[in-house]
Amino acid sequence: MQRIYDPENLLEAEVLLGMLGNEGVDAHLVGRDLMGGIGELPLQGLLGLAVPDDQAEYARQLIAAYNAAQPLPGDEPESFPGILIC
């Protein structure tokens, strides 16, 4: 197993976990159980996505494509130009 990505928060982690699962990547969320310790534990580095060694490169490519996604022209509200709003 390789830890391939450190999501910023639990929501991003869950979205990426679902995306990777839909693409056939056996991903695991490391640190989910530590979220209850926020305030006593450091905020950064608790969460991580880990995948089997043979799927690591493919998973990194999928996450890079996810992070590079841009809104379709006309889909973003005028108050948030260039930002993908879900």
Question: Can you characterise this structure?
Answer:
This protein has 86 residues and is an alpha+beta fold. It is built from two helices and three strands, in the order βαββα. The protein has helices spanning 10-22, 56-68, and strands spanning 2-5, 28-30, 48-51. The protein has a three-stranded antiparallel sheet with strand order 1-3-2, with helices on one face. The relative contact order is 0.21.
What labels describe this entry?
86 residues; DUF2007 domain-containing protein; DUF2007
Structural class: alpha+beta
Low-confidence stretches: none
Q: Find the CATH topology.
A: Alpha-Beta Plaits
What is the level 1 CATH name?
A: Alpha Beta
Main sheet makeup: 3 strands, antiparallel
InterPro entries: DUF2007
Protein name: DUF2007 domain-containing protein
Quick structural overview:
This protein is of the alpha+beta class and 86 residues long.
Write the layout of secondary structure elements.
Elements: E1 2-5, H1 10-22, E2 28-30, E3 48-51, H2 56-68
Antiparallel strand pairs: 1-3, 2-3
